[in-house]
Predict the structure of D-glycero-D-manno-heptose 1-phosphate guanosyltransferase.
Amino acid sequence: MVSSTNSITAIVLCGGLGTRLRSVSRSLPKPMVPVANRPFLEYILDYLIVQGVVRVVLAVSYKKEIIIEHFGSKYRNLAISYSIESNPLGTGGAVKKAIEQIIPCPEQLILIINGDTFVEYSLSDMVSKCKEKHADFVMALKDMDDTSRYGRVKVEHHNITEFEEKKSGYKGLINAGIYLFHPSLYKAFPKSDTFSFENDFLESFIRNHDVQPSISDGYFIDIGVPEDYQKAQEDFEYTNLAWKAP
């Protein structure tokens, strides 16, 4: 568990339409599709609790009422609030809108997580790099044998320096979609209310800032396509993952 967890607010991006998963998600928002008889989003929130986080903002849009009705204002000991998009804002716009409702404090850190991906990440390592090594921004990376679906992230001298194109069969580090930073970075976001966090913000931000990696060697699954959704069903049902159960 991470010390000073009261200074961390997690934002979980739950607004994607999930068109590639529509054959199995039907009328559900993607983070709510059942995996081993539980909504996928519950596993993400369980892992936040394991890491010591006590506050989360769910950034919702498509079928938002299903998520709000299921979780309400509290899940176990996790306080929940909502950032509601009337229209899709993209990942960046969703983050920007959610940050606007967080009350800043001097030690505040913002943790960003995708609602359709589960990653075993070390929040303590990410916090250490923000607070002790004074990184502007920390990104969780995952080592993959085939990065063709995601593209690769280049790391030099303990800094993230470049996002590389998607190339079939290449081994390397991928962006796991977990970010930690101070809310003051909000000022560096594009002025537009609708933008991509990765393409319109991160790609230019890494060129002039200290962006450090936190490399995960744990479990990773992105349920955005039916094949990996089916794999998640088996993994979460039969694999001994200690954080699975409340």
User: Anything to note?
Assistant: The first helix runs from residue 22 to 25. The mean pLDDT is 87.
